[in-house]
Amino acid sequence: xxxxxxxxxxxxxxxxxxxxxxxxxxxxxxxxxxxxxxxxxxxxxxxxxxxxxxxxxxxxxxxxxxxxxxxxxxxxxxxxxxxxxxxxxxxxxxxxxxxxxxxxxxxxxxxxxxxxxxxxxxxxxxxxxxxxxxxxxxxxxxxxxxxxxxxxxxxxxxxxxxxxxxxxxxxxxxxxxxxxxxxxxxxxxxxxxxxxxxxxxxxxxxxxxxxxxxxxxxxxxxxxxxxxxxxxxxxxxxxxxxxxxxxxxxxxxxxxxxxxxxxxxxxxxxxxxxxxxxxxxxxxxxxxxxxxxxxxxxxxxxxxxxxxxxxxxxxxxxxxxxxxxxxxxxxxxxxxxxxxxxxxxxxxx
Length: 349
What we know:
Order of helices and strands: EHEHHEHEHHEHEHEHEHEEHHEEEH
Strand content: 15-25%
Family: Belongs to the NAGSA dehydrogenase family. Type 1 subfamily.
Subcellular location: Cytoplasm
Number of domains: 2
Largest sheet: 7 strands, mixed
Structural class: alpha/beta
Active site: 149
Radius of gyration: 20 Å
Enzyme class: oxidoreductase
Oligomer: single chain
Mean pLDDT: 94
Distance between the termini: 35 Å
């Protein structure tokens, strides 16, 4: 059995991780920490887990975490990097669901997250955990930086046009119009997140600049192996009055070469062996409710004009966009079938 620790067990991502791992055939969750709820039974805070666990929240104790095979950090940015080096030295693998190990560019990290990175050596050897694109590196990794939810949709939405391809699209005119449920903002008290501020409302945020933008750009450069080709990418996130779910609409200008390509066939071939990426028939409409609670990402393509491609990408921001992808990465790191613990079907209605 794999001994697992979860640091930050009271947030939406932390409890989603716990929900998935409690039914994982090869996992024993040994430690679940909380800064504010130490000593409280998990089932008392999350009644959905009654009868499934007797765990109690505990204070963060690094010596205890060192006894785990892997530690997930479902914490605010800046926490995982304070402990990663010590844990790795003790032989414990680290999967961070915050941003500490997503950006290799330290200047960009410090600019967007407002803090100095305290373990750049570990960052340099860490692996970006976009499972479908970095599978072989993930298998050998000691530290994983789990991708952001929005960047997951953008990368998987664009990868077939960029990886091993050239000249199919204009990389300087990409527009990403993305929407997320309110759980993406985390489980914290905030005026902007309360019911009366979000019900019957729909708004854009981070229009002048969002911290996922540099992550998207850096990742697309790595996928395409082209530097400086995505500087003009526009990314605008929106908040939708639903609990979970994410839909990204990506607008792309096709080159003459791209217009001659069978793009539906390209996508279907690219993802033909991917268990958790579903390329739907052309002109389909992936819905967020079709992936609710499932580690599934669905893609559909439209050609409204010969030179235009519209890519629709839907996922559950808490599962494929966070906890589910983290479990995928753990499975790879420990040589387990990638789908273990992730076979759930989306909840509909």
